[in-house]
Amino acid sequence: MKSTKFWLGMCAMLSISGFATSCSNEDDPKRDDTGSKVELPNDRMFILNSGSMGANNSNISFYATKEDKAIADIFYVQNGFRLGDTGQDLIEDDNQIYVSVYGSNYLAKLNAAGVEQGRVSFTSDAELQGGVRYLAEEDNFIYASFHGGVVAKINKSNLSVVGKVTGLGANLEGVAIEDDKLYVANSYSQSVDPETGKNVYKYLDEMFVIDLKTFKLSETLTVCTNPNMVVEEDDKIFVIGNGNYADKGYELQMIDPKQNNKITSLAVATNMAVGNDKVYLVNSVTDWSTYTTTNTFFYYDIKASRLVESSFMKDAPAELASASIYMMTVDDETGDIYIGTSDYVSNGDIYRFKRDGSYVTKFDSGGINPFKAVFLDLH
After folding, report:
1. Residue 241: CB partners within 8 Å, gap ≥ 6?
2. CB-CB contact of 373 with 48 (8 Å)
3. 3-class SS at 72?
4. pTM of the model
5. Could you give the CA distance from residue 211 to residue 131 in angstroms, rounded to a whole number?
6. Cis peptide before 86 (omega within 30 of 0)
7. pLDDT score for 12
8. 44 near 107, Cβ under 8 Å?
């Protein structure tokens, strides 16, 4: 049973009922809630529910981290239209939120209340037809990976594409920035067998390093097979490779830019989140004969350069031991840890833990497949 109930503030209810109601916070210069139809507290978590491929059911939900209350699909509440198909990435910078939508192939900028400020569609750009994937920000620009082997440089202010690096392998996935370098995972290529007409996948092992000062490829690293998730913490890059679904399985590696991009294999892991000088990890193993999943939670202490094989959680609900882990994230202000689960057909669950691992609460994600989240502290 989920402990948190969804709510709509009085402003939202009046607006939905047809009344012209403003709930902006003009007395607080630290936040821009212009156009908001609902009063929001200062402590905010926005959750990207990626939805189901082709179902056009992605959304962004809201959770008040101090009040333990939530709003399902705040994106629709605030904007009056749906997010699209399929939600891919969500990042925050200077109280502005950026979301990439892979199937609909666009990038949008939202204000601190989730009201859309602008968007750029990539559907008419021949080089960006593969679809936008992951995002990273540095200075005045957003850097986006695309299927089809392209990284785009996008102006934050007007969302115009101001540069591209093309010819980068095949399908690009996770990205992260460290020391003016963009690390980009090249995961797999796809072709069609002319005789059978079936898709043929080749799983790759490349990490492209792009110099952001010149916006040119500076180095190609050989990493784990089918690299996908890429994150940065404490001046290190961490990457999870999904393997080839045959003789090579999941693998977590660490890249150290200060040691000439030295690569170290750390563990077998299927999902991760970074924060509190740690990499929080889970390794999920499914017995496909019974469809039973077993999760093992552990962490890597970056400062101590030590893998800790015990769980980072205390008194975790029993169902987390076998749930499908779809999201892990850390609030960079409080250090709280959030774990999202999915059954792929109904709204996901999100479990919240304090930075010391103590269990706090469980709440409904407000959509299918909770995948990414960002936190805003507007005090």
Report:
1. 205, 223, 224, 225, 226, 227, 228, 248, 250, 251, 253
2. yes
3. coil
4. 0.93
5. 23
6. yes
7. 39
8. no
Binning pLDDT at 50, 70 and 90, where does residue 24 land? very low
What DSSP letter does each residue of 62-115 carry, written as one string? EEETTTTEEETTHHHHHHSS--BS-EEEEEEETTEEEEEETTTTEEEEE-TTS-
Q: pLDDT tens-digit profile of 120-137? A: 999 999 999 999 999 999
- pLDDT surpassing 80 at residue 38: yes
Report how far residue 141's alpha carbon sits from residue 159's, in angstroms, rounded to the nearest whole number.
9
Quote the Cα angle for 51-275-168, to 5°.
Answer: 60
Which tokens is 91 given? 């990042």
More reliable by pLDDT, 329 or 4: 329
Strands 171-178 and 262-267: unpaired
Cα 349 to chain centroid distance, Å, stands at 16
Q: Is the pLDDT of residue 16 over 50?
A: no
